[in-house]
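Consider the following assembly input.
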Amino acid sequence: MAEAKSADFVVIGSGIVGSLTALKLVQSGASVLILEAGPRVTRAETVARFRNSPERSDWMSAYPLRPWAPHPKYHPEDNGYLVQAGPYPYPAEYIRQVGGTTWHWAAHAWRNVPNDFKIRSLYGIGVDWPLSYEELEPFYQEAEEIMGVSGAPNTGSPRSKPFPMEPVAEPYAMRRIRERLAPAYPVVTNTTARNSRSYGGRPACCGNNSCQPICPIDAQYHGGLAAASAEAAGAKLIPNANVYKLDHDATGRITAALYYDPEKSSHRVTGKTFIVAANGIESPRLLLLSASDKFPRGLANSSDMVGRNLMDHPSTSLIFDADEELWLGRGPQSPSSINTMRDGPFRARHAAYRLDFTNISRVDSATKALIAEGVYGVEFAKRLRHSAAHELNVKSVLEVLPNPEHRITLSAEKDSMGIPKPQAHYAIDGYTRKGHERARRDYQRIAQLMGGTNLRYSDDYANNQHICGTLSMGRDSHASVCDGWGRAHDHENLFLAGTGIMPTAATVNSTENAVALALRTAHHIVTGK
Amino acid sequence: MEPRNSEKITSPCHRGRRLVLRSLLGTYTASFLPWALSQPPIDAGPGAFLALSVLLTARQSLDGEQAAHLYDALLADDPAFPSAARSLLSLIKERNIDPLHLQRVLDREKSPLAPLPRKVAMAWFMGVVGAGDKARVIAYEKALNAVIVSDVLKPPTYCYGAYASWTKKPT
Amino acid sequence: MRTAVLGVIALIPLGAQAVDSDLVKRGEYLARAGDCIACHTAPGGKPMAGGLAIPTPVGTIVSTNITPSRVHGIGDYSLDEFGSALRAGIRRDGKHLYPAMPYTAYANVSDDDVKALYAYFMQGVTAVSASPPETKLAFPFNIRMAMAAWNTLFLRSEPFRTDPASSTEWNRGAYLVRGLAHCGACHTPRNVFMAEKQSRELGGGDVGPWYAPNITSDATSGVGGWSEEELMAYMGRGDAAGKAQASGPMMEAIDNSLKYLSKGDLRAIAVYVKSVPPLRDTGDSRPAYGWGAPADSLESVRGAALPASLDQMSGPQLYDAYCATCHQAQAQGSFDGRMPALFHNAALGRTNTNNLVMVMLAGAERGEAREVLMPGFASELSDVQVARLGSYLTKRYGNPQATVTPKQAERLRRGGKTLQIVVVVQAATALAGLVLITALVVFLRRGSAKRASMRR
């Protein structure tokens, strides 16, 4: 089959956002070409690799590293692909493969709350979005119907239509937590892209408890399914195509994407419109790599904002032993949370946050801890069962404010393809730290309500790979990279999609926001509205 | 990270080892622990490994095939393993060290044998042999940490049951 | 969608008959037993409005509109005409139906039941004013007249006769099985003229790429070893633990028809089926569900790298990657039985492995909501992988004599488009017979005409 070298739309990145954007565009009758740096993968081989991984707790071990499309890897040691310039590390994980990173996610699919769109106007911090909740609402709904999303009603995000299905059944452990924390803390079922019944030809969840890194039965939606649907609809997808530069003409119109195949031969693809959806680190990297005489700071960067305002949702946590047997590990990995601290006047002073209860099995972590402690014999079995039955973990999902000093730049180091590596400059601000202090008091209280002992706090800010801000949308072309529809201020035929265009992070995992924005972008491209 | 190809366990050497381990296990129960410790090992390496395994896992019975695989992997990972195992076993016998205190004693004395119990424990409880790039999974579903909780939990990636089967209180 | 709507119960335009809602209800139940809806409804179409295109080797047969529409359906049929179509295969205009319509089985239906069915179709089904396309087969299959000859040979035209020596229950079961439920349409092999071989009742038959197994009373090759309860569970739910799970066309029959039957009727069917003369298939040494035990090949999988080309994955590796998640490492199934064990499972115990391959490719779905009981792996497994995995499964957990080949997988994949209904083979085989009959009739006619002309 002859390779398509030109198309109406060239989409860079085949993750959930790139693929769904491609799907919408190809359905409108246009020709669409998706360029993906990494290879095709199958669900089955990922399951097999996970079971054979000697370091199962490193979820990335199920996704082998390919030298022609490197991504960050931190275990057993940091491969140095994402250079850490500090002062605080930003060790985000992401996967360069067809379908991208959502092959391996917990399927959280929350909407923002309406106030998340205007925290500057309301609270004097951060920035306002160049659109309102109401304008995004129909696209949230569309995203939820594509992905098969369900959740508790009334968690602060108004709906015009119901979820496509009922919330996922609550694990016993979560029910007990909910019962014991009420009324001090209302625990709700998470809003997730996980099947509570057969949907889209895919079965309902059967409790594999391995959502991260892989759902063995596709009960949760992911980018692999999105890519398959785009291809089935007629989009052409070229895997193993590492796009390293975008070319432009004298007027600044983007004219071509250049990519390396695994043998490092260069290929050129032309198109009328280009959409960069290569995640919040690789997308700004590509724009910076595409610097030219006309655009010495990189493409779409007259504002100097490309790569800046790097955000995430860091997590601090508490592990403790509850006073009753709960047995985490039965059912999906991330079923319940507390959502009462997502919004309020306190946001003028400190970060908002969610509190997530994990349902990930404790068995492996307890095993390693006991062996490290030198516990064997009869004592081992007794203590393993005790930890497996009693141990709980509550973590925060903290908001981070946009700060232009926190950014992705190009490193002086080069990767295995000879391309400058991405480099992260990051820190945790006082705003977020104060949010954590508040959350820590919640952990304490929660442990109390659960009769907790053996409290183990983690005050480190763990990365959650919700990579936002680096291509911030906005009305002011001096202070943002693209407009409310993702169109680059500087290039009429260049659109940006993904979590990178979110100008603030809010408190929810970013995928649903990014998908809704992308659907709105596609709608705008197709209809002009 | 890809595990190395497992050695095919077909050589006479391996088969013989298997036989030994199986026969030793055939006559063993937990109550025969003193017996196991007092037997002159037929084949010293596997015998010592088996005695250590019994000591550290305190299981009523151990799977002979699994023992053979783990032993082969431990040997491949470190050719000095059999002699280290013999030394540790002798040490335990001589000084009558309780498994409860074993690791603490070895760590405190900075014994060169200190890594050994952890190796054997990782092999049986996690099903993993070797470290870093050399680490390999020998067992997952049959690793003892999965077996110990198998009345309530399934190893991750395996279906728990029908949809909503996780809502019930575990019995 | 496919649920017939007891919509507008209106007075029949012909004559001032009062609506007898009990009769209509009884008719609805009987229509369920007869599974009319399966053929006479197109996917996504209105109930009983026809339009299902049934592919056969001789052309596509399109099911007709049997709603009470007077122009497009059977609204103008009298009770007699309805009975004639149902039991003799003759339309109101006198034309013959192709035995894709199983009138040879419906010939058993009693007058009382015809009356109830008539009432249901006239008053319980919503009229739909649209005609599906006409069935247009190529010559000579468009000669419906030849069906008359075929019927002469193979149509038993009397309704069912009770056997006074047998129990009421047995008779009810015989009435249903031979009649409305038309089990033999799939489960009975056919003769050279492609009619059901009555001497081998329920002895097994091909249904396109699927195989409808021997369900005679033989304890080894049939269902002699099944209890009545197990048969009822299978018919009612599609699942009999330690025996078999339904998929493909049988699951459709359960979904559209059998699951609606009363416990009494299901038991009657079970009683009858367990009395059908036993037929032993050569080569069967034990029942299909009698093979296998819990086992695993984890030693060869754990710690072994996947091959560079996934087409080279071994049987145990394929099992680990594709099957073990639900069927568990030792094929023991989930503890609540929702995911069945693979040993002691008829799916792996037959020497004919077509059904095994079909389930691997197409999975199993249930109900209108299309609940995914098992996903299909057609888009994930190559023919080579299907063969290697299938043969590993039968060897490890089933009948070790049974094998799967890549060619078989390829063939089934092509002919294996999951059909809405079961009648492909009925139609195909009946029409093949039609060719022979037609040729015979034409030949005989020509012969007699010649002789007549010679005599002049």
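Chain A has one domain: 6-50+94-527. Ask yourself how this observation constrains the way the partners meet.
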